[in-house]
Amino acid sequence: MRRRRTRTLVVAALLLVAAAVPAVGAAAATTAPATASTVSTDGGTPSALGPTGPATDPASATGAASAQTAACEFPVTFTDATGTEVTLDERPDRVTTLNPSAAQTMWEIGGKAQVVGLSQFALYLDGADSRTNVSASGFGVSVEKVVGTNPDLVLAPNASSAETIQSLRDAGLTVYHFRESTTVDDVAAKTTRTGRLTGNCEGAAEANAWMTANVETAGEATADAEDVRALYPLGGGYVAGSGTFISAMIEAAGGTNVAAERDLTGYPQINDEVVLELAPDYLVVTDFSSYLVGQEPYASTPAVQNNNTVRVNRNWLNQPAPRSVVMSVRTLTRGFHPDATATVEFETRAEAVAAMGTGTPTATESQPITDTTSPSVVDETPATETSGPGFGVVLAVLAVLASALLARREQ
């Protein structure tokens, strides 16, 4: 087992997109929701990463596991992004997620069976089509559909409107509204918090250990390599600037986001001249944006002229969650630095868990998380291709405008 080092990587931030897809999912059965109350304590902040090194003493490992279990006892109270103290008297049996990164996290920490509702953008997850799709016909979620899932807990992204959160609470639901995440450490902390709220603490610690091990391996593999200059175009003139989750993945993989050279933050719209002046050596694309390499101004960049494009699954690149970090960093690191990573073996989840000394993984790396052809897989970036089948110019423009408005807010 390779040696793990503790390293803080300051990277990341998020974005949201909305696109229309058919509603799917079975209607949920009814159970009584857990009660919410107000108390005077925040309930504490759990460790973001959990143990990452191997336990040399079996008794210590057993003690750590027992402590982890004890830490997941209920009732529990936390203060969310709205300043509301959210209390769960018991482990929630029914959880509804309002964004795909929250759903992906639940799948990853062993909470899949608890999820009864999710958004259209999470339909790529294995078994998601048997859950209720709570997305509205346009943007956002349907309060009526969320209420209809009769959840014990609703996990809401920061980009959810105050009106939506209040409407759900007025309907008697327990809602935890997440704070903005801007670093990998924040993703880990959000995963830990999700695990604590849903009674999946051990699974959350394992997911974070796996994520951390892969990020550290990428850093070790590229430590002596020169960072490549990369850019992620969204289409419609929009790019991913610094201080975003996408930029974080580029940096963790041994790259630099050229948008930062112009102090471009968030998801700004730039003209063709600026793109050519930035002259990225690498372009990062997804199946939604790969068409851009054949269009100006990107076709005239050094990246395209030298065939230096890296294609990443849009699920991973656009949804801040542990598996997203692992898969994005792996793909980008190999794409940016093929020689440096030729013999590198990234840690499997089983290896990361073995290093923790806690036994069998709660969820495994081979756990199926399927990719579909639906345009429903984006937490952050819009599907901006106007030439693809089934995606008209008007919808493309609306999606880009929606991204420009919503990219400033965390999902």
Automatic annotation (TrEMBL):
Where in the sequence does UniProt note compositional bias of the Low complexity kind? 50-64
Compositional bias, Polar residues, is annotated for: 359-376
The alphabetical list of record keywords is: Signal
Disordered: where is this region?
A: 31-64, 358-385
Q: Per the UniProt record, which residue ranges are transmembrane?
A: none
The question of whether Signal is a record keyword is answered with yes
Write out the GO cellular component annotations: plasma membrane; S-layer
**Keyword Transport set for record:** no
Residues in domain Fe/B12 periplasmic-binding? 94-340
Q: Which one Pfam family would you cite for this protein?
A: Peripla_BP_2
Q: Kindly provide the name given to this protein in its UniProt entry.
A: PGF-CTERM-anchored ABC transporter substrate-binding protein
| Annotated organism of origin | Halobaculum marinum
**What lineage, starting at the top, does this entry show?**
Archaea, Methanobacteriati, Methanobacteriota, Stenosarchaea group, Halobacteria
